[in-house]
C-alpha cells in the first residue's frame, strides 16, 4: 500500500478514539484499539495497531504505542509522577522478559544537544546495583552514530545483543515531532521498534533478531513544520535544550532502574542517578 496523506491517518485514529468512548465505529477494534487513562497527574494514551493494512493507513508499523503527556520535562516537582507513570508503562512492555538478559541501547550523538538523550540516559544508569534484579543481566551500550563510527547502528546493536544473549533491547533515543508543543513535553514508548532518521535505519525484530522496545522524547522539529523553508530542512530545538535533555534523561533513568530492580522506589533510584552525576 502506498503512503497516504497524514490526514487519512488522523481520521482513522479519531475513529478509534470514538470506538473506545463507545460513540460508534466499534468495527475498527479488530484492526486498531485506542484508550486513554490517567496515572497520577499524567495522561496516557495507548494505541494498538493490529493489522498491516491499518498500519499503512496510519503510517506506523504494527505494534503497541504509549504516549505519556508529561508537560515540560524540566518541571522538577513533577519528576516523581512522571517516573512512576513511565514505570507502569515499561512494565507493560518488559514483563515478558523477566528473568532474561536485557540490553539497554542508548542511541544518539553526545555532541549534538538535541540528539544527546540516549548518551545522557546511559550516564545515569549503573547496571550492577546490589539489589534483586528482575532481569538475569542488564547491559548498557551506547552505539554512537554511524556518521562517527562508520558502523551501522543495527549492525552494532545486533552484535552486542548476541554477545550478551539479550532477550530484548530497550532503546532510548531522541526523536523529532510535527507539533512544537510536543518538544520535551511527552514520552513515547512502543514495541514496534525504532526508526533512526539520521541514517534511515530501523531497529526492530527483523533487523536485530529480538524484540526492540523503544523509548523516545521529541527534542526537535523540522524547519518546514514551522513554515520555515531552508534547503536542508534543518532540525530546530528550543533554547535551553541542554537542560531539558538532562531532565528527560534523569526521568527515564529513574524509571528504568525502578523497572529493573525489585524494591527500587523513586527516592532510591534518584539517589543512584544523582550519585552517578557527581563523577
Tag the structure with descriptive keywords.
25% strand, 279 residues, 11 strands, 9 helices, alpha/beta
Task: Outline the structure in words.
- The strands form two sheets. Strands 1, 2, 3, 4, 5, 6, 7, 10 and 11 form a nine-stranded mixed beta sheet that branches. Strands 8-9 form a two-stranded antiparallel sheet.
- It is α/β, with parallel strands linked by helices and 279 residues long.
- It is 34% helix and 25% strand.
- The N terminus is likely disordered.
- The N and C termini lie far apart (51 Å).
- It is globular, with a radius of gyration of 18 Å.
Can you write the helix and strand succession as a string? HEEHEHEHEHHEEEEHEEHH
Q: Tell me about the biggest sheet? A: 9 strands, mixed
Structural class: alpha/beta
Can you tell me the overall shape? globular
What oligomeric state best describes the polypeptide chains here? single chain
Instruction: Tell me the span between the first and last alpha carbons.
Output: 51 Å
Number of strands: 11
Radius of gyration: 18 Å
- Name the poorly predicted regions: 1-5
% residues in beta strands: 15-25%
In DSSP terms (H or I, runs of 4 or more residues), the helix count works out at 9
Relative helix content: 25-40%
pLDDT averaged over residues: 86
Amino acid at each position: 500500500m502506498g503512503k497516504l496523506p497524514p490526514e487519512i491517518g488522523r481520521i482513522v485514529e479519531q475513529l478509534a478514539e470514538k470506538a473506545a468512548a463507545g460513540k460508534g465505529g466499534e468495527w475498527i477494534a479488530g484492526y486498531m484499539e485506542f484508550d486513554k487513562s490517567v496515572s497520577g497527574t499524567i495522561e496516557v494514551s495507548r494505541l494498538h495497531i493490529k493489522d498491516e493494512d491499518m498500519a499503512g493507513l496510519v503510517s506506523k508499523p504494527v505494534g503497541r504505542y504509549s504516549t505519556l503527556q508529561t508537560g515540560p520535562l524540566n518541571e522538577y516537582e513533577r519528576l516523581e509522577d512522571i517516573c512512576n507513570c513511565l514505570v507502569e508503562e515499561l512494565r507493560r512492555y518488559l514483563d515478558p522478559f523477566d528473568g532474561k538478559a536485557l540490553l539497554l541501547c542508548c542511541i544518539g550523538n553526545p555532541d549534538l544537544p538535541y540528539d544527546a538523550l540516549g548518551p545522557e540516559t546511559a550516564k545515569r544508569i549503573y547496571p550492577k546495583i546490589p539489589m534483586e534484579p528482575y532481569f538475569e543481566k542488564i547491559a548498557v551500550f551506547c552505539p554512537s552514530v554511524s556518521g562517527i563510527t562508520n558502523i551501522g547502528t543495527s549492525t552494532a546493536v545486533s552484535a552486542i545483543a548476541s554477545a550478551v544473549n539479550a532477550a530484548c533491547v530497550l532503546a532510548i533515543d531522541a526523536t523529532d515531532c510535527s507539533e512544537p508543543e510536543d518538544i520535551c513535553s511527552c514520552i513515547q514508548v512502543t514495541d514496534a521498534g525504532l526508526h533512526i532518521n539520521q541514517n534511515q535505519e530501523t531497529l526492530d525484530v527483523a533487523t536485530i533478531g529480538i524484540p526492540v522496545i523503544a523509548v523516545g522524547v521529541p527534542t526537535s522539529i523540522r524547519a518546514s513544520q514551522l513554515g520555515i523553508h531552508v534547503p536542508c530542512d534543518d532540525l530546530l530545538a528550543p533554547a535551553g535544550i541542554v537542560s531539558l535533555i538532562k531532565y528527560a534523561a534523569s526521568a527515564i533513568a529513574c524509571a528504568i532502574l525502578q523497572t529493573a530492580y525489585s524494591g527500587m522506589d523513586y527516592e532510591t533510584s534518584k539517589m543512584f542517578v544523582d550519585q552517578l552525576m557527581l563523577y
